[in-house]
Amino acid sequence: MNENERLQKAIEATIIAGYQLSNESFNYLCHNCEGTDPLAIMNMVLHEIKNLKEKPFFIEKIFLENMVKQLTQTHQAAQATKSEKNQSTNQTTRNIEPNGEKQKTQDLKSPQLPVSPSTIISENTFYPYAKYVPSELEILEDATGKLTSNGTLEEYTTLFQDRYKRIEKILRQRIDVKAATPIREALKAQPKTKLKIICMLTEKKDSKQQTILSVEDLNSSATVLIPNKAPDEVKKKALQILPDQVICIAVIKTKSNLFLAEDIIFPDVGQKTIQKTKEPIYAVLTSDIHVGSIKFNKEAFKKFILWLKGKYGTPEMREIAGYVKYLLIAGDIVDGVGIYPGQQFELTIRDIHKQYDFAIKYLAKIPKYIEIVLAPGNHDTSRKALPQPAIPSEYLTAIKDKPNIHSVGSPCLLNIHGINVLMDHGRSLDDIIAVVPEMSHEHPEKSMRLLLQGRHIAPMYGGKTLLSPENRDYLVIDKVPDILHAGHVHVLGYCNYRGVIVVNSGGWQEQTDYMEKLGLIPTPGKVPVINLMTMEITVLDFKTEN
């Protein structure tokens, strides 16, 4: 931050804390604090006032003068100590030139680095800016309480018909797709006629010579051929199409009922302006805590909680912690019980209720002004089929008296301070990685980008991701979010895709035997933090010593 930004933050911090600067103190802060940090000064002042029995309404100039005096004395003492240390550690060394000849002897001294007043202050104080900012959290879309499936064949038909209609509507909003023709009409066209059809992929057969797509719409089906001589871009798109995905294909009608593909158009998201807040508020994204697992890195998680309280990390880390207002957890809060064969031998807590109790005990230590949102994952007690409703309340009895902890379903669209966040656990990423070439666990953000391109959280039916046949497809991405947040893969990855911040937040579980068999190397303890005013991401590592 430059001087003006820090001055502005100093004034904002004062107002939010409930105080005002007198005219003299305001002018002093603006014009007489050269060489010092105004934000650091105000942090010290606010810290001192906090300890007073009678708190003033106006902060007078004398307060600021005393703080500047203390800072100057501390700075001078630190410089003197460093100078003495440098004199005692000066040493003579010889440098070797590349040709092997010795250079003349030089005295190498440790560089004289200025001590930042803000660094000195923040070692002893923590100012929670976010504490004095009202929360703005709204759940926009959550299927919890709306699910009615009985698992019948008719319901599956209704689900896929709804998916087709919703994504067709998205596709027809594109100028290049508005005039798309129904398959039934396209089959009646004359040979060599160029058309566009909106369809759902039912089967894909790849070979060295060609790719054959079996597609259908609500009334008809057809076969589309992508020959080997097709442009590379079209062949690349064909590799990325997922079963049961709704797309538009530009085709040429042949003499038979076969179509030749000229292009493939995904629903995709248009380039959007990045939404930002007007004040410096941060959101922490994380997932896959896996409380109860022997591989849960509780020491790193404890450091994380201490950091949120302003009691751990470098001065820069603690400054960021002061602006954290939201903590979004995308599933797998606990490791669960009976999730996979032999799991009982890898648990430190074998009772699912106790796992959740311990998880909530951790979360309860987080400052109350931070809004915590919990979504379920495949290890949680919510049903496994998507969409997942919120974790049943009987497992989260400990949060009843904690109004800052919210339980939602997966996927869930929420708004924090004007920023739309689509949060999903990310189970479908396994299916994408298994089917699409060049996708891997090492870069989960690439697979998440494909979900945005297809405008669907989990398009594939019959894979590892179970889908519930609801009367509405809650997994269609109708509204383009500002942030897409997932987990499940246990690997941190993020990117900006057409103005959407895409984040897979990693987790807190060390490598398990299952991960090792997959060749998956997790990144536990690495936490992405988003500054909602700039939408910049900072990654903090709680496995390393700070």
Walkthrough of the structure:
With 546 residues, the protein is an alpha/beta fold. 29% of the residues lie in helices and 21% in strands. It has helices spanning 3-16, 23-31, 38-50, 61-89, 117-122, 153-171, 183-186, 232-240, 298-308, 315-321, 352-364, 429-435, 444-454, 513-518, and strands at 20-21, 58-59, 91-93, 106-108, 137-142, 194-206, 210-216, 221-227, 246-253, 258-265, 282-286, 324-330, 371-375, 405-407, 412-416, 419-423, 483-486, 492-497, 500-505, 526-531, 536-541. The strands form five sheets. The chain has a six-stranded mixed β-sheet with strand order 5-15-16-17-19-18, covered by helices on one side. The protein has a six-stranded mixed β-sheet with strand order 14-13-12-11-20-21. The longest helix has 29 residues, at 61-89.
Sheet of most strands: 6 strands, mixed
Average pLDDT figure: 87
Shape: elongated
What does the radius of gyration come to?
29 Å
The count of DSSP E runs of length 2 or more, i.e. the number of strands, is 21
Measure the end-to-end span: 22 Å
Structural class from helices and strands?
alpha/beta
> What proportion of the residues is helical, as a percent range?
25-40%
Helical segment count: 14
Strand residue content: 15-25%
Strand order of the largest sheet: 5-15-16-17-19-18
Which runs of at least 5 residues are low in confidence (pLDDT < 50)? 88-124
